[in-house]
User: Fold these one by one.
Assistant:
Number 1:
Amino acid sequence: MLGPVLLAASRSAAIRRIVSAAPVTRPTVDRFVAGERLAEAIPAVRALTERGLEVTLDHLGEDITDPAEALRNRDAYLALTEALAAEGLAGRAEMSVKLSAFGQALSGGHDLALAHVTPVVEAADAAGTTVTLDMEDHTTVDSTLAILTELRRRFPRTGAVVQSYLFRTEDDCRALAGEGSRVRLVKGAYKEPASVAHQDKREVDLAYVRCLKILMAGEGYPMIGSHDPRMVAIAQELARRFGRKLDEYEFQMLYGIRPAEQERLAAEGHRMRVYVPYGTDWYGYFMRRLAERPANLAFFLRSLVGRG
């Protein structure tokens, strides 16, 4: 029952101040976030790639209220693209972006987000990498998929994310399962109403498997975003059933969660991509990580007790 409470807390300014001020928070955040600055994130990326892993980077910042913040986020991703190219990492690292960080929720936000994300996708393509559009709450799905369609006219490798807890996602998977389409399937980490999303964990899991079957049977490139051992095993079985080679799909897991499993999958020849967030605006991301897995919350609470 703590999950919904933590998701609500992820958007509370008052709770943010309390959590941010706790002495134990920063060391715990460091488990899930690769630093606040790009200069801290790049060594983390290099260390992962040297262990046979691939990476997607997220410069944290969402739900902005000022158009100037959208420009700063755009510039942060342009700097990231430049750094990946300069460090020779563009072939192993792509980028994930939340369109709310580019102004999607502001007045005229759809056009604003498209205008800001386009140069990032252009720069990524020129550097030899690509971008995946993260999915946020259900109110943003139509806008995000429309921006995806526009970007794919010029940059067909632009990736999409879909969330199995939304009722609409099976239809979205069918629409996105075409040739060359890169689609990351996740369960979902936002608090959604019962009118649009499954509320029961078992129903979310069943929907995940149905969506995974659609993607594996299609002509696109499925990206399995899950730490759940059952989903990993099911994905491997579906890949075999549909005759997919190891380079025709990949697994994705979050930085700091199940690192041994990440390395095991990579050692078996699977493409294993680690989602690496960095930046000063870590609070919302951190609270969602606590909400979605009891083990994460237990880790944080043990740290609090240990420092108490």
Number 2:
Amino acid sequence: MPAPRFPYRLIATDLDGTLLRSDDTISARTRAALDAAAERGAAHIVVTGRAVPWTKRILAELDYRGLAVCAQGSQVYDAGAGKLLTSVTLDRRVGRQALDLLEKEVGTVAVAASCDGLDGQVLAGPGYRVHEGPLPYVPVEDRETIWQQPLNKLYIQHDQLDDDGLAKAARAAVGDLVGVVMAGEGIVELLPLGLSKAKGLALAARRLRIRAAETVAFGDMPNDVPMFAWAGHGVAMANAHEELLAVADEVTAANDEDGIAVVLERLLSRP
């Protein structure tokens, strides 16, 4: 008899802190679990805050040829074709206005910007602390430089407010102009209003003719909350932010302990 179909038709996984381990690799165990689920009929979609240029390397290492939702839902990328299918940009006038209003409330913020497109650069303005690692960026001395081309989103940092405090202050000051998400350590972002991972995932799933109820989603940060609300089942990693843990249907092991594989293997073992 053929093996039964996987309980979900779609597996949606965040990247950093979820699919990726702390060393930016994907374990052999997790790869094997995803492959086994695929053999049983499940599609896999990467859903990440990273824009396409920062995601392509990981997808290539996975030999991933499906759809990927990038830049907090603003981009749907066909990895097999190397083609950007959808892209939503931040109105730069609105972005400027939001920063001005925010700085009136909290003082100066350091700013970086993610430029639109398959090869869009990340421009880091004065004082912006960039995470060391393999993700390329371009330092700019004048913040005005970031407004010269279409943008997916802005990154903001503050010398005194922590990530949660800055995100809370930004929502209070400019939440009616832009979306505000905390996507990881030192990563608070301003997005087009109404944009979320859930919006991008819904677009990608529609292309595959898969419903929300047929989706299991994995994540670790507050920017994954809308994705969990959309999906049929939301699984938070043990290392997840408390805001996501509070809304998860299930909590699995940490990303460094093959948390995705733990859940997929259990689902694969169902008769």
